[in-house]
Amino acid sequence: MKIIGGPSSQTLACRVAAEMNILPTVSEFTRFPDDEQYLKISEPIEGEDVVLIQSTATDSDWIMLLQMIDACASAKSIRVVIPYMGYARQDQVFKSGEAVSARAMAKTLTGVDSVWTMNIHKKHTLNHFACPAMDLDASPLIAKYILDLKLNRPLLVAPDKGVEKMVRDMASGLDLECDVFDKTRLSGDTVSIQEKKMDIVGRDVILMDDMIATGGTMAESVKILRTNHAGNVYVACIHPVLARNAVLRLANSGVKDIMATDTLEKIQSRISVAPVIAAELKKLKK
C-alpha cells in the first residue's frame, strides 16, 4: 500500500502512514512559470494499492487532487481521502439559477475505487460520487481530547441546531451535560444568537461545531457565555477553516483556546484524524 499526500495534507498523510507502519510516498508539486500546477509521484505505483490524501479547501487543491488521481492511473486501486471537502456547503439550490457545487465537484472524481470524507457538511453529497463513498467521524477523537483536559464541571454547547445531534452524541459518550443556542444567520459572516438560560456560572464551557469559517457564530456565542459568568470558554471544531480574521475575532471574544483536528493543517490542529483513517485502511488489509 502506498500513502500519498497532496500539498494540503502532507502532515496528515505522514501520520496515517505512521499508523500503518509504512513510509509515506513522496510526491513533488510545483508550478510552471505560467502558474499551472505540476505533480509527479516519485515512486513506481504500477499495480499498487494507493491511498491519496488531499483536503480541497481551495480550487488549486481540487486541481492537484485530480492530477494525483491521473498520475496513479496505473495503480491496482485508488482510494481517495478528502479530509475536508471544499464546496460541500453548496449542497443544494438556495436561489434560482445556482449551481449545486458539491455535486459538480464530486462528479470530477473519475477512475477512483472509493472516496472517504470526514464529517462532510451533508451526507447526501456522497451520492454524487461515481464510486462508493463513505463519511468518517472525527468527533470521538475530540471528545477524548476534551475528557483529558480535566475541566471544571464541563458543559458542551452546540452553537446551533445544525450540529446539535453531533454534540449531544459526544456529550452522551462522555457522560457530560450539553445545551444548544438558537442562531439566526443574517449574512455570510454575521449571525444573531438568542440568549437562553443555561447552568454555566463558574463552569468551563466547550463550544463545539463541525467547522469554524469566519468565527462569527463562535465569537458571538463566547461573548454571551462570558457575559453570563461562565468559567473558561473553549471552542472546538473538526474543520478549522479560520478564514480572514477568525482567530482574532475569537481571541477578542474572550475564548480560552481553539481546538481542532488536522483535516485542515493549521496551528490549532492538535487532534489528528489519522487513527480514524488508518482504522479503515487496516480493515481493507484483512
CATH topology of the largest domain: Rossmann fold
If you average the pLDDT, what whole number results?
A: 92
Low-confidence stretches: none
Biggest pleated sheet: 6 strands, parallel
Number of distinct beta strands: 15
Secondary-structure class: alpha/beta
Strand content: 25-35%
The rough form would be described as globular
Report the CATH architecture of the largest domain: 3-Layer(aba) Sandwich
Estimated helix fraction? 25-40%
Query: What is the domain total for the residues?
Result: 2
What CATH first level of the largest domain would be assigned? Alpha Beta
Number of H/I helices: 8
Distance, first to last CA: 13 Å
> How would you write the strand order of the largest sheet?
9-8-12-13-14-15
Radius of gyration: 20 Å
Assembly annotation: single chain
Order of helices and strands: EHEEEHEHEEHEHEEEEHEHEEH
Main location: cytoplasm
GO cellular component, one term: cytoplasm
Domain Ribose-phosphate pyrophosphokinase N-terminal: 1-110
InterPro entries: Pribosyltran_N (IPR029099), PRTase-like (IPR029057), PRTase_dom (IPR000836), Rib-P_diPkinase (IPR005946), Rib-P_diPkinase_arc (IPR037514)
